Amino acid sequence: MLMPRQKTPNLNLPLLGGGTFDLATEDSSRGTVICFYRGLHCPICANYLKELEKKTADFAERGVGTIAISTDGQERTREMAEKVEAKGLRFAYDLPLQVAKDWGLYISTSRGKTSIGIEEPALFSEPGLFMVTPEQTLYYGSVQTMPFVRPHFSELVSALDFAIANDYPARGEYTGAV
């Protein structure tokens, strides 16, 4: 399990449009919102990523970068980026399943074609949303076992405003006896 205020696993993945996303060298002044999504086959993910695309500028105004990541390959990722009409939101692809597990993401097996007629990969990760500081420590994290009931980006933006104004630390860091 990832722990607040502790270093997160590394992420070094290819980006749509060229280049590489390397979490260790991200230069956003207040950190990065990392949205792990299930893949092109998931219509709920497409709607969720449309919302993240709409909020990407709001995060940027607060010094926070955004990225969407899945286990899909380049072509399926390109299709998803086109589907959500991504302009500011970056997309990385080819997330290894072991790295997904290192981030605490749940792994699912294929059930064939989804409601939108797209084949699920044999194995893929379920959603997760993380905010990572510039020092690559966990500030916020949420993982799901299903595509339903995800955190709202507007609430995360509001929470960031509060955290910035009040120098609010990451919570949930205690690991001692209870």
Task: Describe what you observe in this structure.
Helix content is 28%, strand content 21%. The chain has a single domain, classed as Glutaredoxin. It is built from four helices and nine strands, in the order βββαβαβαββββα. Strand 3, helix 1 and strand 4 form a beta-alpha-beta unit. The chain is globular. The chain is an alpha/beta fold.
Describe how the helices and strands are arranged.
Elements: E1 12-14, E2 20-22, E3 31-36, H1 43-61, E4 64-69, H2 74-83, E5 90-92, H3 97-102, E6 107-109, E7 123-125, E8 128-132, E9 138-143, H4 153-166
Parallel strand pairs: 3-4, 4-5
Antiparallel strand pairs: 1-2, 3-8, 6-7, 8-9
At a glance:
With 178 residues, this protein is of the alpha/beta class. Helices cover 28% and strands 21% of the residues.
Please provide the ordered H/E string of secondary-structure elements: EEEHEHEHEEEEH
Number of strands: 9
Distance linking N and C termini: 17 Å
The fourth-level CATH homologous superfamily is: Glutaredoxin
| Biggest β-sheet strands, sense, barrel | 5 strands, mixed
CATH class: Alpha Beta
Shape: globular
Beta-strand residue percentage: 15-25%
Protein structure class = alpha/beta
Rg, rounded, reads 16 Å
Cross-sheet strand order for the largest sheet: 5-4-3-8-9
- CATH fold assignment: Glutaredoxin
